Amino acid sequence: MDDRGRILLRAQRPTPAREDGDTVMRAVEDVLGELERGEAWGRARAVGIGSAGPVDASAGTVSPVNVPGWRGYPLVERVRAATDGLPVELVGDGVAMTAAEHWQGAARGHDNALCMVVSTGVGGGLVLNGSLHPGPTGNAGHIGHISVDLDGDPCPCGARGCVERIASGPNIARRALEAGWRPGPDGDTSPAAGARAARAGDPLATASFDRAAQALAAGIAATATLVEIDIAVIGGGVAMAGDVLFAPLRRALREYATLSFVRRLTVAPALTGTDAGLVGAAAAALRAFPDPAAARLRSAVRG
């Protein structure tokens, strides 16, 4: 990508998520190798990584829950070696999405924002005082593991009643099924099928989305009260449910965001789509390793 956010060259490989760590790394190296053969690679000055978490940017390691072979895996070191020493910036995928939305999406122009990915999990990131705030390890804003139900279901993270345990796509579908929702003749029990059922008026599917919206509203309001964000941007597969999610979310937010300094908080759908992680990883790298020539030019113009 260039400084304007234009994608110059794209490469991708399937993730062999159930294989050992080095096999997964070979897929990453294949992507890098293809990019290196492109004409634009000679101008590359940094590499950005947006990874499923947890990540530890301070150590350069990743431990994605859905990639068992990567536990404390030294991804930054391995990518740096594969790219002949280019500087590497690592952030969590929620932080990457936030960087993308602040640069090119719904959070553009907002100095204080929370951006969320609501999909198979719930992640997020923060913009504070006009700048991306990844935190020391690259996980700041991970709203999915704020507890909003103190006596709620156990979460795989070890806590109880986390936003993710209530509002992620699989948990929305699970709760509807446990309440008695039955899919159509095709047997589709996916979150997308649940959203279609809710849109058609199914009360059990609707109730599960309402519960998810309430959990999201509680987490967003808590975040807004803590750091005074003025917009929450929501992307990911569950956000594609549209008003099935956003209408009850906005209603619930009025019940939770009650203090005077958070009442004007707005919620908006994300705009950067499926490229959010890629765009955001590039944005994080550009932020961490700015172009020295461009910085000198800006300084000269100001002078």
Automatic annotation (TrEMBL):
<dbReference type="InterPro" id="IPR000600">
    <property type="entry name" value="ROK"/>
</dbReference>
<feature type="compositionally biased region" description="Low complexity">
    <location>
        <begin position="188"/>
        <end position="197"/>
    </location>
</feature>
<dbReference type="Pfam" id="PF00480">
    <property type="entry name" value="ROK"/>
</dbReference>
<dbReference type="InterPro" id="IPR049874">
    <property type="entry name" value="ROK_cs"/>
</dbReference>
<feature type="region of interest" description="Disordered">
    <location>
        <begin position="178"/>
        <end position="197"/>
    </location>
</feature>
<protein>
    <recommendedName>
        <fullName>ROK family protein</fullName>
    </recommendedName>
</protein>
<dbReference type="InterPro" id="IPR043129">
    <property type="entry name" value="ATPase_NBD"/>
</dbReference>
<comment type="similarity">
    <text>Belongs to the ROK (NagC/XylR) family.</text>
</comment>
